[in-house]
Amino acid sequence: MSEHKFCHRCGNSAEQKIPAGDNRPRAVCVACDYIHYENPKNVVGCLLEWHGKVLLCKREIEPRRGYWTLPAGFMENGETSLDGAAREVREEACAECDNLRLFAIYNLPRISQVYLMFFGRLRNGEATAGEETEAVGLFSQQDIPWDDLAFPVVTETLTRFFERKQERIREVHYADIISRPGEPLDIVRHSG
Amino acid sequence: MSEHKFCHRCGNSAEQKIPAGDNRPRAVCVACDYIHYENPKNVVGCLLEWHGKVLLCKREIEPRRGYWTLPAGFMENGETSLDGAAREVREEACAECDNLRLFAIYNLPRISQVYLMFFGRLRNGEATAGEETEAVGLFSQQDIPWDDLAFPVVTETLTRFFERKQERIREVHYADIISRPGEPLDIVRHSG
Fold this sequence. Notes:
Two copies of one chain form a homodimer.
Chain A: E1 14-17, E2 26-29, E3 35-36, E4 41-50, E5 53-59, E6 68-69, E7 72-74, H1 81-93, E8 97-108, E9 113-122, E10 133-139, H2 152-167, E11 173-178, E12 186-191
Parallel strand pairs in A: 4-9, 8-11
Antiparallel strand pairs in A: 1-2, 2-3, 4-5, 4-7, 5-6, 5-10, 8-9, 11-12
């Protein structure tokens, strides 16, 4: 359910109800009728290559502290998804990227997130750990720490990258990552 | 600036400040320290074809009431972007779609929105006006009401669709739609 117990505009109580003309419950202020919409968040990140190796970051924050991930984070207001992905690379790996292009879109409906992942080149092969990162590393396909990756979406992005590199396909990958309690993860690849 | 004047968790005042470890101002509760993040929203929609014609909806709501648009709306929590796009078609045009595939991604950083547009086939060629729609219509390229389209992102989606149909290209289109006060609209096509 919603975290909105109070109106963020006037501070009075908010109650769950279906607004007129709508079809699902929202947190609506009992005093000023303001409707608090809650929508999915975008996570933007990059898969960067340098001489056949891929940049990974070891997480220094929860969740999944100590596990390896691709540099990625929540998209911010006022930026494009590509600019946000480049910003995350700067923040997490103190690195710059060149020739970024859209690589994959993943729906994670259970946690209401959409991942927009970009592919590009790590500038000069240079990266160091940012504030939320314990270490950075460049890994060839056989050296990727597959058992110590932070999230299924990271595993899927890397898997798809190496598959498609072999197949020489450039189509944007679009897939759902479906998790249901007590069931194995289901990855539905729609295209790419 | 943020609309968050009050904490939606405890109802106390929220103030704009940069949280520890962060690099931009957020609305932070003065009592419980809850941080209210505000992030871009996704708009999901469809370009549906039926025997060479495209489905458009005439808006019955503001903004741009009376202008023509593609069926689209805000993505909701708990759904995939593709399912959300199909839901919007159902709500706005009482129609079903087949063979949906990702067609284009547009960044609209000034209003902090990302459009995810899908292409597919209008099932049985059937559509009628939904609650927020005054009328629906099927238009061939030469009959599209180009001067009466609701938003630049609709114009760009339709333009790109007809260009690419001619070129027989299926690559996902990725572009920024940049508007600055007092300047002409700038559409930056990255790929596709």
